[in-house]
Amino acid sequence: MTTSYNESDQALLNKLGQRIRELRNTSDLSQEKLAFTCDLDRTYIGSVERGERNVSIINLQKIATALNVELHELLNF
Amino acid sequence: MTTSYNESDQALLNKLGQRIRELRNTSDLSQEKLAFTCDLDRTYIGSVERGERNVSIINLQKIATALNVELHELLNF
């Protein structure tokens, strides 16, 4: 069951997803490899990149660490 | 019921809480005023500042907007 968000919240989640995908591709990582490095599920990473998840700060930090960027760099979009 | 986090996750939540408190005080806002501006509950803001909440990106953006900083500035600690 996917949660529905208001327009501005959905725009935020879409930007986050695109930013993660962009950084992942730049690091030449598959979703699977990123998920393994973060100790998160591959389908979760996929749903985050599609803007379907209201990601928590703890998971944002895990993803930033796996992408070798600081948390604030991950969210500088 | 408070969730317990591992050491590094708890350190992250503590740093976030301190950062929000610091920015709130610099803006001379009470927890109540910040909560009202973000459309969040005052007790929630209090628990975030005490490092008790694994805050989602949507709420992080609400708090950043209410404190007149960009999301990445809020998380630059």
Automatic annotation (TrEMBL), chains A, B:
S-adenosyl-L-methionine in keyword set: no
Keyword terms of this UniProt record: Coiled coil, DNA-binding, Transcription, Transcription regulation
GO molecular function, one term: DNA-binding transcription factor activity
Any Pfam family the entry gives: HTH_3
Keyword rRNA-binding recorded: no
A GO term from the CC aspect: cytosol
Protein name as annotated: XRE family transcriptional regulator
